């Protein structure tokens, strides 16, 4: 497979993974477009370096999270000033679904976390082990453990408020 | 809700499509990227090496063509050649250091920090370099025409002031990455 074919198959097979990261790191459709575009470019650029040592999903998750973390830093700076007009190419169309309200709430809670905790929360919810998270994020397993413990507690605590007050 | 319940809510979304992708727009973006983006550091290196070699050669040739007595312009030419050589050395160091970063988020941040640090150092070095070149230029031209010399000094001062802003911009980028790295390293 050449680079273009690999890219097409990655986007086709792992789009759901990219969408989750996009949704967790953005608050509106324009931002989602911008971030998805950046992720797609980074994924495309990474293809020559992919040697199959890790699963494609792990590889793409890492790229998506790296891109999202860097993007959100940049975006915070720009949000007070002008937006980057060139980057507003319309790639994504949000498909509103009559989905579980609890999922919206969960995404909202993740969006409130700092950039690194967001990444860990996504990896945790997608069932990655501490070892895999440690490798992907580049911190020790024990450090991952500490952070995950806090994230789990935080989400469970917040969910109690949600259940009691619906917010 | 307990965490297992949250996980079930999360897993349920996999059955649905959150967004649709405009495949042709995506293809266009990737195609345009294929034509090549020049990175900041690479661009800066090429410009600096190119201008130093060109300007140094021009001064060197002019010195002998015009049989000038002063050696200040020769000093300036040698200074420019040396600068080009140093930048090429920095570049080789930067490129050889690429492989030492792993492919984790932390590794990527370390890599970003290393590149940002490099650009910060480069822009600071270029400020010192500019002061040296500006001083040599002013003294090479002499002070026979005081108005011209003052205008020249004014232009150099303005460029130096502008480069300070540029440098601050690189420093801010560097500090942002440092802050991010700190967040990652915190327990």
What's this, in brief?
The complex is a heterodimer of chains A (167) and B (187). With 167 residues, chain A is mostly helical.
Poorly predicted regions of chain B are none
Number of helices of chain A: 7
N-to-C terminal Cα separation of chain A, in Å? 48 Å
In terms of DSSP E residues, the strand content of chain A is: under 5%
The counted number of beta strands of chain B is 1
The string of secondary-structure elements of chain B, in order, is HEHHHHH
Number of strands of chain A: 1
Which blocks of ≥5 consecutive residues of chain A have pLDDT under 50? 80-88
- The proportion of strand residues of chain B reads under 5%
Which chain pair shows the most residues in contact? A-B, 58 and 40 residues
Describe this structure in words.
The complex is a heterodimer of chains A (167) and B (187). With 167 residues, chain A is mainly α. Chain A is 71% helix and 2% strand. Chain A contains seven helices and one strand, in the order αααβαααα. Chain A is globular, with a radius of gyration of 17 Å. Chain A starts with a helix and ends with a helix. Chain B is mostly helical and 187 residues long. Chain B is 80% helix and 2% strand. Chain B is built from six helices and one strand; from the N terminus they run H-E-H-H-H-H-H. In chain B, helix 3 runs antiparallel to helix 4 and helix 5 packs antiparallel against helix 6. The longest helix of chain B has 40 residues. Chain B is elongated and about 85 Å long. In chain B, 17% of the residues are buried. Classes of the chains: A mainly alpha (167), B mainly alpha (187). Chains A and B meet through helix 1, helix 2, helix 3, strand 1 and helix 4 of A and helix 1, strand 1, helix 2, helix 5 and helix 6 of B.
